[in-house]
Amino acid sequence: MKTKEKTKKESSCSNKTNDLIENDENFELLASFFYLFSDPTRLKIIELLKENELCVHELSNILKIKQPSISQHLKVLYQGKILQKKKLGLHVFYKLDDEHIARIYEQGLEHVKE
Questions:
Q1: Which residues are registered as beta bridge partners of 79?
Q2: How many CA atoms lie within 13 A of 46 on its CB side?
Q3: Inter-CA distances, 100 with 6, 37, 83, Å
Q4: Mind listing the pLDDT tens digit for each residue in 98-110?
Q5: Which helix (H) or strand (E) holds 28?
Q6: Contact assessment for residue 51 and residue 98, using Cβ atoms and an 8 Å cutoff
């Protein structure tokens, strides 16, 4: 009796795992998402935008990095749906898209500090 129950349970688990593994699109999307966190400058930008809404000029001054470079990183993060942006006059202000992003960043930071 226990053998049949165990076999059914293993089979059920195996089916769920196979379904997940066979969906390559989810893994591609997840890999693309984690790629966004793979650059130290982008991580610094995320850190700064956790609590603040900043423009390119402000980020450039804080990080001591030229504006074109900051703009490229912001473009990557925006296209990856990590950031939101709003234009006020001549300036574009950026902030994190939502709390999920801050939590993922903070959990990663906590993990590497252990």
A1: none
A2: 26
A3: 37, 13, 11
A4: 899 999 999 999 9
A5: helix 24-35
A6: no
The one-letter amino acid code at 27 reads F
Given CA atoms 38, 44, 48, 50 in this order, what sign does their dihedral have? positive
For residue range 37-74, list pLDDT tens digits in order.
Answer: 999 999 999 999 999 999 999 999 999 999 999 999 99
Amino acid at 114: E
Q: Cα-flanking dihedrals φ and ψ of residue 55, to 5°?
A: -100, 170
Q: Give the H or E element holding residue 29.
A: helix 24-35
Q: Among 69, 73, 95, which residue's Cα sits nearest to residue 84?
A: 95
Overall pTM surpassing 0.85 (yes/no)? no
Residue 41: partners with Cβ closer than 8 Å, 6 or more residues away = 63, 65, 69, 70, 73
89 DSSP 8-state letter: T
Q: Are 54 and 93 in contact (CB under 8 A)?
A: yes
Which residue is associated with the tokens 């950031």?
Answer: 83
CA diameter of the chain: 73
